[in-house]
């Protein structure tokens, strides 16, 4: 029987309309009493309020009524999407209202503060500067006049007004944050009212909040707020305090750390912050009893030596078949079921807690055996670093980090009220953990990564070891019940791994381990293996699609930075197999991330033999390598290989999703073709209407994961038909409207242009160049960055094609001119584009022939290109950009057709390099500039004597100051810098002519010669010139042996002795002869001293036995 609802009509209680409700009835939506549009309601009430004056009759009653009407209306645009208002109207209204409300009437003051919070919060308005000053002044006066019971509402209004306006309220900051400031008093730990303290922290948070494109608050106030937030987090938690205080302080801390390059003071400031954040990362974790340290200390990385970790005993190997339970558990995974990882139980596991528990342990253990990583007995865990001491749980290792309500499927242990309180507490705890991880992410992004390397052991475990597991980011990834918290932990881990290639490059475990101690390289290798193990477990166990995407992205960062050539093979093969089902996941972001991870594996220090073997394996090989044993396989597959319909279709639907065939089934495919290549080809050629509805954009989103799996080794062995199809598809995708697809396609063309079979094809080079130049003008910065990178690769191939081919004559002059002009324009773009644009300019200036350079149409573009390179070298751009600019100038100097001796721009080019080689703080840029100065092969390229001697003096000065730096880490490049400088000086000596002798002789006979003599002597002896791994490859010049250096100096001496000059005046001739004698005497003395040192060393060594 249908329900009947009586609705009053017309406001008359005596008249009723009887309405029958049915399932098809329109849902009831509450409206304001007058049932008018919120926008109309706001305009009408605002007009009434602005018409009031201070001397109006019944002013208080009118204000009270209007305030109630404003506050009772819901102005959220999600509720009322048609609402239309102007922010200036809201500001005018609030300014007028604050002038009408007397502060002696506390009731109206409270109503007004509620109105301020209500309007600004729901209408998302940031007040203008006049309104800001008026409201802040009114609220500050109210805090000093009104009773204390009103202060919470007043401070809440102040917090709303200050949102995003911190830099604009400079004249109020001293009264709020200065000595005895209001906010300092309310936020002090001695404040008994915790609500006032919490709202005061919120005010400070909104002051520090940074708005993109606007100035930030002054550093002194930001630092003061930072200290208050940190003290609030470090202070003991009051007995009656809930987690909202911690959440507010963490949000404020995040605002302080975000958007600026934070500069920490000395001492233990960083360690204290990290210790606090680590404690809060595990806030509310049940079953955890930990004595948290107040400070984390960085491990001394270069000298890190620790006692060797005993190898855990091997667990008994038991046969495990898919679907059967195993008795071996992952070491970092407590007994937990799949449904414990999600916020709600899935239908197939509800009421089957024990069974789900065993299944999860089985999958983790089975994958462990496949990865060939040593397993542990139950309760084992990953080892912590030296800095993480004292943080292991003191509970038995079998204690789970899951709360009891997640570990049981029995009736609730709480009453309804208690259960509601428990749910609320869990929610607050989850927010605190998430906020702490957000702050840690801001620290990782805002602090120099080299500073944080010493703290890695506090957040990332090394090798598994017996005993209680350490509390690290991976503990959260594997055990936290909230998928949002797990995703945040993965974001932090990804940020730590991003750009860590140099640090992780030290890892090595191929050598035989020493039993006496554990080298740092071996510990770091164990960390990489533990990251692989734990992230693989998370890959298999994760049920949230968003968190799963973060897991795969984190693995991609790991694979991109780990030095697999220095590690024992076997890390990538299991990951390759486990990842395979996820390219067919129903969520498009998971599929994109999976393809990106495959691309990272294929390009990891290519060519890795392990990856080459994996590429050659067919799709069904590897003993279950298809991933059929993964716990989520049935739910993952959006395209079943047996041709079943997509899970997104209803059982009665006749729609069938396309089946991904094996390579042998593909038309035209050869047996043994890489399945990954065939998959990428099929994804980019598949029509849009064949996509599943859940793809959110279809092919475009899948291709957006940079098609890097189609790599050098794979494509070059393909038949011509498949090669042509790949090229045609990519050229077509560069016209896609999706910027992600276009960027990925342009980048793939930049990879293809490096293939030997394609780079010599003039037509393909021309087509690719035109496509890249078009993408270089795209409005998307990402597309332009990829296009610049591809243009750099394309111009690299031009240099390769110079020798032994007619390629230079066959390539169109107009195309080269377009490339030169486009690269010059792109050099004014952002640094991501600029760094590769200047590289392309250097290659183009090297490639151009004499006939092209002398054409009038090339003259102005040539001058503009060189001027751009000179400006970039001298600019304050990033190190990478300036390094590439120095490289580009050196590359241009290699072109013998360039008129370096007569061109007006050549003086600026040499001057910029001379300035950088002596003054740049970054030694890698100095090395590259010194290498560029040593490139010209003829004396005439250096211009007149004045320019030649200026280059000499710059190199000599840079050699004298080669050990002066403010950054200790730059000392790694000292040896490489000295060797490059000395080679450049010897090169100048070998090219010097008769007219250079007076200036050179005076330089060598003076203080400059004395200063560089020791360096030259060590250079000839081969002492202190070992570049090592840090400086290897930076200069671009080969390191000569001792014999080669001595022979080169002897040839220089012989050339100087043979110099002859005719037709010069007697005085000039005598001056030059004197200069030559000084230079020759200096070099002869250098050779003599080197020989004497050799004899002395030989005599001291004694006869050999």
Salient structural properties:
two-stranded antiparallel sheet, 2% strand, 49 helices, mainly alpha, 1105 residues
Mean pLDDT, to the nearest integer, reads 76
Largest sheet: 2 strands, antiparallel
Q: End-to-end distance, in Å?
A: 113 Å
What shape does the CA trace take?
globular
In DSSP terms (H or I, runs of 4 or more residues), the helix count works out at 49
Number of strands: 4
Uncertain residue segments: 1-23, 25-34, 302-415, 622-672, 687-717, 1025-1033
Could you give the order of strands across the largest sheet? 1-2
Q: Percent range for helical residues?
A: 55-70%
The radius of gyration computed from the alpha-carbon positions, rounded to a whole number of angstroms, is: 36 Å
Structural class: mainly alpha
**Percent range for β-strand residues:** under 5%
Question: What report would you give on this structure?
Answer:
The protein has 1105 residues and is mostly helical. A two-stranded antiparallel sheet has the order 1-2. It has a two-stranded antiparallel ribbon with strand order 3-4.
């Amino acid at each position: 029987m249908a329900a009947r609802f009586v609705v009053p009509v017309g406001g008359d209680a005596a008249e009723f309309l009887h309405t029958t409700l049915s399932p098809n009835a329109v849902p009831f939506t509450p409206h304001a009493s007058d049932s008018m549009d919120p926008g109309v309601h706001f305009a009408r009430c605002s007009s009434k309020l602005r018409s009031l004056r201070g001397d109006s009759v019944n002013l208080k009653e009118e204000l009270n009524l209007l305030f109630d009407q404003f506050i009772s209306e819901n102005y959220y645009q999600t509720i009322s999407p048609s609402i239309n208002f102007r922010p200036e109207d809201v500001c005018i209204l609030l300014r007028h209202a604050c002038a009408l409300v007397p502060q002696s009437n506390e009731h109206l003051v409270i109503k007004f503060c509620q109105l301020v919070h209500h309007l600004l919060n729901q209408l998302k308005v940031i007040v203008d500067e006049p309104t800001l000053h008026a409201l802040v002044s009114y609220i500050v006066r109210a805090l000093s006049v009104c009773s204390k019971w009103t202060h919470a509402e007043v401070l809440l209004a102040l917090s709303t007004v200050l949102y995003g306006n911190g830099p604009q309220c400079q004249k109020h900051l001293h009264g709020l944050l200065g000595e005895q400031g209001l906010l300092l008093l309310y936020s002090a730990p001695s404040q008994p009212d915790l609500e006032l303290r919490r709202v005061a922290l919120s005010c400070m948070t909104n002051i520090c909040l940074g708005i993109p494109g606007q100035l930030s608050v002054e550093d002194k106030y930001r630092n003061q707020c930072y200290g208050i937030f940190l003290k609030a987090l470090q202070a003991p938690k009051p007995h009656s305090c809930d987690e909202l205080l911690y959440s507010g302080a963490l949000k404020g801390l995040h605002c302080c750390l975000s958007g600026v390059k934070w500069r920490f003071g000395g001492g233990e400031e960083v360690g204290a912050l990290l210790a606090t954040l680590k404690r809060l990362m595990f806030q509310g974790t049940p079953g955890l009893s930990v004595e948290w340290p107040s400070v984390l200390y960085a491990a001394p990385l270069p000298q890190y030596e620790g006692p060797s970790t005993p190898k855990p005993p091997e667990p008994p190997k038991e046969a495990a078949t898919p679907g059967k339970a195993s008795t071996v558990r992952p070491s970092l995974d407590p007994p937990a079921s799949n449904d414990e990882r999600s916020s709600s139980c899935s239908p197939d596991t509800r009421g089957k807690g024990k069974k789900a528990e065993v299944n999860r342990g089985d999958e983790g253990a089975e994958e462990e055996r496949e990865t060939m990583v040593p397993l542990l007995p139950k309760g084992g865990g990953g080892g912590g670093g030296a800095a993480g001491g004292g943080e292991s749980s003191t509970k038995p290792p079998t204690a789970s980090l899951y709360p009891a309500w997640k570990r049981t499927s029995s009736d609730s242990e709480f009453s309804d009220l208690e259960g509601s309180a428990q749910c609320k507490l869990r929610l607050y705890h989850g927010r605190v953990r998430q906020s702490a991880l957000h702050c840690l992410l801001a620290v990782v992004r805002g602090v120099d990564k080299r500073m944080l390397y010493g703290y890695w052991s506090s957040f990332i475990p090394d090798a598994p070891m017996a005993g209680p597991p350490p509390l690290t980011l991976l503990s959260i990834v594997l055990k936290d019940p909230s998928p949002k918290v797990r995703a945040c932990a993965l974001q932090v881990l990804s940020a730590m791994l991003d750009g860590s290639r140099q640090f992780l490059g030290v890892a090595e475990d191929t050598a035989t381990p020493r039993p006496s101690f554990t080298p740092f390289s071996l510990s770091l290798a164990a960390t990489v293996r533990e990251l692989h193990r734990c992230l693989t477990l998370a890959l298999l166990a994760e049920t949230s699609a968003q968190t799963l995407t973060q897991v795969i992205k984190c693995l991609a960062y790991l694979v991109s930075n780990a030095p697999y050539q220095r590690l024992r093979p076997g890390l990538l093969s299991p990951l390759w197999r486990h990842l395979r089902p996820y390219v067919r996941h129903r969520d498009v972001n998971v599929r994109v991330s999976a393809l990106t991870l495959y691309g990272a594996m294929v390009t990891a220090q290519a060519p890795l033999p392990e990856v080459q073997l994996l590429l050659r394996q067919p799709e069904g090989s590897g003993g279950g390598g298809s991933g059929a044993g993964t716990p989520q396989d049935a739910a993952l597959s959006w395209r079943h290989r047996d041709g079943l319909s997509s899970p997104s279709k209803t059982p009665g639907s006749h729609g069938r999703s396309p089946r991904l065939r094996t390579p042998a089934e593909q038309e035209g495919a050869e047996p043994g073709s890489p399945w990954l290549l065939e998959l990428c080809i099929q994804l980019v050629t598949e029509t849009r209407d064949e996509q599943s509805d859940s793809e959110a954009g279809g092919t475009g989103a899948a291709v957006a994961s940079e098609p890097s799996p189609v790599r050098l080794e794979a494509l070059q062995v393909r038949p011509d038909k498949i090669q042509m199809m790949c090229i045609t598809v990519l050229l077509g995708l560069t016209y896609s409207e999706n910027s992600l697809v276009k960027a990925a396609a342009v980048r793939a063309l930049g990879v293809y242009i490096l293939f030997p079979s394609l780079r010599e094809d003039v037509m393909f080079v021309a087509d690719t160049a035109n496509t890249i130049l078009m993408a270089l003008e795209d409005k998307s910065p990402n597309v332009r960055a990829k296009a610049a990178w591809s243009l750099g690769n394309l111009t690299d191939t031009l240099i390769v094609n110079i020798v032994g081919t007619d390629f230079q004559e066959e390539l169109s002059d107009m195309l080269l001119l377009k490339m030169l002009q486009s690269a010059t324009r792109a050099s004014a773009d952002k640094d991501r584009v600029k760094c590769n644009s200047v590289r392309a300019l250097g290659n183009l200036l090297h490639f151009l022939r004499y006939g092209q350079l002398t054409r009038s149409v090339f003259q102005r573009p040539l001058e503009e290109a060189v001027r751009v390179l000179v400006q970039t070298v001298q600019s304050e751009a990033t190190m990478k950009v300036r390094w590439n600019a120095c490289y580009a100038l050196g590359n241009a100097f290699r072109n013998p057709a360039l008129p370096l001796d007569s061109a007006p721009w050549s003086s600026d080019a040499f001057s910029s390099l001379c300035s950088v080689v002596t003054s740049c703080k970054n030694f890698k840029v100095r090395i590259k500039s010194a290498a560029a100065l040593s490139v010209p092969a003829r004396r005439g390229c250096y211009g007149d004597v004045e320019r030649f001697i200026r280059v000499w003096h710059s190199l000599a000065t840079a050699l004298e100051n080669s050990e002066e730096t403010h950054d200790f880490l730059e000392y790694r490049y000292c040896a490489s810098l000295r060797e490059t400088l000395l080679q450049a000086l010897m090169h100048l000596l070998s090219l010097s002519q008769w007219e250079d002798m007076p200036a050179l002789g005076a330089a060598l006979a003076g203080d400059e010669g004395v200063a560089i003599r020791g360096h030259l002597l060590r250079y000839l002896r081969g002492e202190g010139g070992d570049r090592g791994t840090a400086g290897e490859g930076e200069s671009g010049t080969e390191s000569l042996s001792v014999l080669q250096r001595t022979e080169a100096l002897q040839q220089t001496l012989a050339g100087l002795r043979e110099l002859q000059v005719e037709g010069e005046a007697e005085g000039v001739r005598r001056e030059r002869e004197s200069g030559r004698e000084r230079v020759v005497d200096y070099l002869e003395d250098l050779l003599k001293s080197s020989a004497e040192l050799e004899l002395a060393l030989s005599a001291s060594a004694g006869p050999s036995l």
